[in-house]
Design a protein that fits this description.
Blueprint: E1 3-11, E2 19-24, E3 38-39, E4 41-45, E5 48-58, E6 62-70, E7 76-79, E8 85-88, E9 98-102, H1 108-114, H2 116-122, H3 126-130, E10 146-154, E11 163-168, E12 182-183, E13 185-188, E14 191-199, E15 205-212, E16 218-220, E17 226-228, E18 240-247
Parallel strand pairs: 1-9, 9-18, 10-18
Antiparallel strand pairs: 1-5, 2-3, 2-6, 4-5, 6-7, 6-8, 10-14, 11-12, 11-15, 13-14, 15-16, 15-17
Length: 250
């Protein structure tokens, strides 16, 4: 059976004596038993404290999971708010590939906007219900210099008829021109996704998400540029990077 290595990375600041564990629906993530989940280790990346862990899973793999802050005895001190995260290993991965999940901690304020009752009252989630579901696909044959980046963003407050694109510092994402940006597909539950194939030499890439109205008017999200980079010094760099970027900053 083909296997891939999943690497999870989550920027999160903890206090002394605290650590992070992933618990999920798959046996590799403890079958929801936190004490048997995947323990993460902290690494300093610039000014950020990033919690990392890896696990081997089948190449065809889907699960739900969430992050938990625990004490030295693996007692849960804090857990993510809201619904469980969903992970789907991308199609086309090969035996031995490394799939990197760059994640985010969902706090209570973000979880509130994702609750269907709140969305129905405030932002008319019925508009999302009318959107056509599409599965992002990757048709390109990869060579050793290619890295597949999957952009994943939650847009619970998207205006009716709007779509989402990624634009940034690379031709594949439009060179900061929204009209040439990478169009994302709506996959349900307010989530938009798209694949992009980049050469190793093209990293790092700065980018932002942009909403495009039904009339074609584009507006970039607020805040600083996002960035994706790869560690080419690693003996086996990630072949697939899943950018779980949280919510659109509006």
């Amino acid at each position: 059976m083909a296997k891939v290595t999943l690497i999870f990375k989550l920027p999160y600041y903890t206090e002394w004596g605290q650590s992070l564990i992933i618990a999920g629906s798959a046996p590799a993530l403890g079958s929801w038993n936190v004490k048997q989940g995947l323990a993460l280790s902290p690494v300093h990346e610039g000014n950020a404290l990033v919690w990392c862990g890896q696990v081997s899973v089948p190449a065809v793999f889907t699960c739900e999971y969430s992050y938990h802050v625990v004490d030295d005895h693996k007692n849960v001190l804090r857990r993510e708010a809201g619904e469980k995260k969903k992970l789907v290993v991308p199609e086309g991965v090969k035996d031995g590939d490394v799939v990197e999940v760059r994640d985010w901690w969902q706090d209570a304020s973000e979880a509130l906007f994702l609750r269907s009752a709140f969305k129905n009252v405030i932002f008319s989630a019925t508009d999302n219900a009318k959107r056509q579901l599409q599965s992002p696909s990757l048709s390109k044959t990869l060579d050793p210099e290619d890295i597949v980046v999957q952009f994943i963003i939650s847009c619970p407050r998207l205006a009716a008829g709007s779509t989402v694109v990624v634009t940034g510092s690379n031709l594949a994402v439009g060179n900061w021109k929204a009209q040439n940006g990478l169009k994302l597909n709506y996959v349900g539950d307010s989530i938009w996704k798209a694949y992009c194939v980049l050469r190793k030499s093209e990293f790092p890439v700065k980018y932002k998400y942009c909403q495009v109205s039904e009339a074609g008017v584009s507006s970039l999200e607020f805040g600083p540029n996002r960035e994706v980079d790869v560690d080419l010094s690693s003996p086996k760099p990630s072949r697939h990077i899943l950018l779980s970027d949280g919510s659109l900053r509006v």
